[in-house]
């Protein structure tokens, strides 16, 4: 057999033995990276008894949904809403620890504390507030807002709108808590059934929770996902002349995204698979819009 014939047979054998190339001639895409979520339950004001339950719930369902969850229970020890201990007797941390531990069942130690600033935000993909009072000071709030504008993902549940009054935070979150006239079973109206965060709910679904109304809020600046079916409540108890009572919304903020849901007052809501689907999908939507930009030093 001639040399050219031998070479042809060898090349043919190698081609037959090689694995087929991918259709697009590229290697398979690596699995999506884990979302590093920071849950903040700093409660300078009212301490909800569901904040500890929320922490446990997210730590349970987070890893199943691609989330690595870090929980900080105190992020601003100087928050004036916390109060101070008696000099020489009780520290501010001890005062806060007692206040937080009673309703939540969780203690607050160094491992549960952190400051939210441009350095620590680099360690996370999404920040979720379940907060009252002032979880950040003025400089830290600017860092947080700059981080979101540069492509970070921010989210809030329930009392995240009962937080940082009279600051630019209201523009970030989309509105402020203005009372909860209804703590009852209500019917939901899904305003945007195509949004991924609404996979868990459909119009007409019923849920029992503490239902908020909002000020400094309008549909002009926030894209509403879900609201109250007004035939399921006594609207005369509300303050809004338009009788428009949103429950969840999203918004673009610079290059970043913001997701908010007012549900989450009750522990049984956190156990509800519909709410869990709503929350996880909302967090993923917020992170999904993140750009590679980072806040410069």
Radius of gyration: 24 Å
Largest sheet, in brief, is: 9 strands, mixed
Helix content bin: 25-40%
Number of strands: 11
What average pLDDT do the residues reach?
86
**Name of the CATH first level:** Alpha Beta
What is the topology, as strand order, of the major beta sheet? 2-1-3-4-11-10-9-6-7
Low-confidence stretches: 1-31, 291-297
Strand content: 15-25%
Shape: globular
Tally of helical runs = 7
CATH fold node name: Rossmann fold
Task: List the defining traits of the structure above.
Rossmann fold; alpha/beta; 297 residues; globular; 7 helices; two-stranded antiparallel ribbon; disordered N terminus; 11 strands; nine-stranded mixed sheet; disordered C terminus
3D architecture notes:
The chain has 297 residues and is α/β, with parallel strands linked by helices. It is built from 7 helices and 11 strands. The protein has a single domain, classed as Class I glutamine amidotransferase (GATase) domain (Rossmann fold). Strands 2-1-3-4-11-10-9-6-7 form a 9-stranded mixed sheet. The radius of gyration is 24 Å and the shape is globular. The N terminus and C terminus are likely disordered.
């Amino acid at each position: 057999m001639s040399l050219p014939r031998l070479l042809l047979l060898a090349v043919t054998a190698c081609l037959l033995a090689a694995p087929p190339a991918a259709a697009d001639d590229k290697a398979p895409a690596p699995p999506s990276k884990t979302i590093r979520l920071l849950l903040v339950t700093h409660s300078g004001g009212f301490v909800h008894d569901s904040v500890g339950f929320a922490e446990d719930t997210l730590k349970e369902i987070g890893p199943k949904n691609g989330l690595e969850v870090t929980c900080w229970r105190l992020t601003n020890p100087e928050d004036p809403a916390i109060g101070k201990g008696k000099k020489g007797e009780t520290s501010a941390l001890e005062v806060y620890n007692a206040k937080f531990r009673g309703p939540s069942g969780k203690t607050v130690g160094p491992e549960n504390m952190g400051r939210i600033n441009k350095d620590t935000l680099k360690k996370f993909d999404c920040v979720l507030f379940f907060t009252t009072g002032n979880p950040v000071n003025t400089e830290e709030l600017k860092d947080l807002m700059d981080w979101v504008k540069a492509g970070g993902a921010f989210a809030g549940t329930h009392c995240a709108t009962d937080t940082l009054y009279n600051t630019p935070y209201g523009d970030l979150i989309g509105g402020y808590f203005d009372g909860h006239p209804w703590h009852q079973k209500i019917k939901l109206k899904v305003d945007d059934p195509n949004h991924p965060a609404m996979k868990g709910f459909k119009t007409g679904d019923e849920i029992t929770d503490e239902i908020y109304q909002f000020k400094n809020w309008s549909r002009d600046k926030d894209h509403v996902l879900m609201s109250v079916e007004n035939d399921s409540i006594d609207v005369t108890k509300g303050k809004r002349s338009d009788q428009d009572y949103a429950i969840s919304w999203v918004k673009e903020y610079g290059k970043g995204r913001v997701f908010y849901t007012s549900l989450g007052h009750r522990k049984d809501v956190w156990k509800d698979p519909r709410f869990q689907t709503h929350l996880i999908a909302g967090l993923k939507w917020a992170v999904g819009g993140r750009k590679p930009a980072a806040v410069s030093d």
